[in-house]
Amino acid sequence: MILHIPVENAYFVFPIAVGVTYPAFAYVLGRTIGGKEVVGVISMVIVTADGASTQFSVAPIPMAIATIFLAGIAMTMISAEIKCKKRLLLLMLIFSIAAAVTHKIPILLATGATTVYMFYSTLQVIELRSFEVITGDYYYVVFFPIILFIQWFYIAPYFLEIIGWLKAILIEGTSPDQVVTVYDIEYQMAEVVDFPIMIDLIYSGYYILTVAIGGICGLVLLYLYKSRQVRILQSFCLVTVLMTIPGLFLYNAPGYRRVFVYATIFVAVLIGVGIEYAREQSRLVQKEVVILAIVLVISANLLSPLVAPDGPEKATRYLTSKEINGKEFTNSKVDQTVYSDVFFKRKKINIGSQTAFSQSDQIVGPPPNPTNHGYMHEELLNGTLRDKEYEYVAWRTDVDIFRLFGGEFRLKWKPETHLDSNYSKVYTNSGVNVYKREKR
């Protein structure tokens, strides 16, 4: 994406990159920490079947690749603890730079994981009364914040946005509600579509079960297994899983399933290490229990409709053949802005001419001036399309649930009735109507 790889190549590269590197890192980390090949195999099996790795292996998004670099950072930290080779620090620097230019979160996660790990180490210093237990670890506390500072100040100005937000609140007296308004549009003529709880539970099954089993394994290892390598792994697990929590409760936050891709390798390894350790220490945990745990995780993923996200009571995430034909007409025959709903407007149909970066159809927030982009959003939610004087409008006739900024909505009114009364149809195929405003 940074290199503007054509989309058709990105869809070819991503499944291979994720399908090879995720299991490879899980195997290496599992075998290194657990000391046995079986731990690596268990970790590899779990991450291969994990819902996040399955879903985002076919989604050309930066997170999928950034996860590889974050796993590389963790691997070099763990390997440095074992081998103490300086060249591993150079490898860590390479992974860190790659992560910094790929996505804004990995270095933040590494900084958080390092902080948690140093907290563990400090407790160990207090317990053993020996500073030697963290000798050589202190550079982590300095290294990652420096990389984060460079990334958020120079590579991408995230700090400047945060400073502006804090300035508005603390100095100018603007409330947070006034600052963050991209989704806070009051709508009178639409209702949010809520998924049935059972469907949402099934769709999130892999996340719930994987985190639950990983949490149990993490607690067992925390109290019974004194290993610095395990502490590093636990630190990365804790921070990456915690990063998913805002997405569970806040719509404005990144989706928790999307963010969980960062945790998938670490949680898989933690489960592998925890299962093998428990099996060694307890006669109650034998092969059958190990197999059952793995089957449960895999079953949760099989139940999650990740490869067919258009489940009941959900908006579609693709264009039908009729909608593609309608979009081709607006692209080739109309030389003015054609207004349409957000998803239809953003969806690309000529993949070969698009870059991977521009192909994303994630609806994360309105542009600074939506009217310049042809998006219909507020006018659909509040029924104010009647007040607009758009020259051209494309309307999808078979859509019941619309993906707009801030969620999925069902309209309480019929925009098509207004369009039929005030516009002339210049194209129709029973899936899409393209209207031209009548001159009065």
TrEMBL record:
It comes from the Archaea. Keywords: Membrane, Transmembrane, Transmembrane helix. The chain crosses the membrane at residues 12-30, 61-80, 87-103, 138-160, 205-225, 232-253, 259-277, 289-308. Coiled coil: none annotated. This is Glycosyltransferase RgtA/B/C/D-like domain-containing protein. It comes from Haloarcula argentinensis.
